[in-house]
């Protein structure tokens, strides 16, 4: 079992969701977050001086998958989020030690769905 955390551009959310659905990945948690990567925020010119904003709006996706869904999920996120521009985002993959479905108390791979 793996936990995939992806940080993407807000305007790419619908495309990523559509790609995930095509790959039969339906369980997803979405959060609005703030942050920046290499671009270090927004650069603006104010009174002739460059000023860098602090944080940019991003979308954080959290998706728990069984191992056989790992690569299809990663590829779906890439297809939906990629623009070839700086700031497209990142995908992190973590080992998921346990998953428990609260309603049935099922555990492990069966609980993910």
Number of separate helices? 3
CATH architecture classification:
2-Layer Sandwich
CATH overall fold name:
Alpha-Beta Plaits
Our Rg estimate from Cα atoms comes to: 17 Å
Mass-distribution shape? elongated
> Helicity, in percent?
10-25%
Strand content: 25-35%
Runs with pLDDT <50, length 5+?
A: none
First-last Cα distance: 11 Å
Strand order of the largest sheet: 2-5-1-6
Task: Compute the average pLDDT.
Answer: 89
Q: What is the makeup of the main sheet? A: 4 strands, antiparallel
Q: Count the domains.
A: 1
Spell the H/E element sequence: EHEEEEHEH
Question: CATH first level: which class?
Answer: Alpha Beta
SSE-based structural type? alpha+beta
Topology of this protein?
Elements: E1 2-8, H1 13-22, E2 29-35, E3 43-46, E4 49-52, E5 56-65, H2 70-81, E6 89-95, H3 109-112
Antiparallel strand pairs: 1-5, 1-6, 2-5, 3-4
What does this protein look like?
The chain has 113 residues and is α+β, with helices and mostly antiparallel strands. The chain has a single domain (2-112), classed as 2-Layer Sandwich (Alpha-Beta Plaits). Helices cover 23% and strands 35% of the residues. The protein has a four-stranded antiparallel beta sheet, covered by helices on one side. It has a two-stranded antiparallel sheet with strand order 3-4. β3 (43-46) and β4 form a beta hairpin. α1 (13-22) packs antiparallel against α2. The longest helix is centred in the C-terminal third of the chain and has 12 residues, at 70-81. The model has no long low-confidence stretch (mean pLDDT 89).
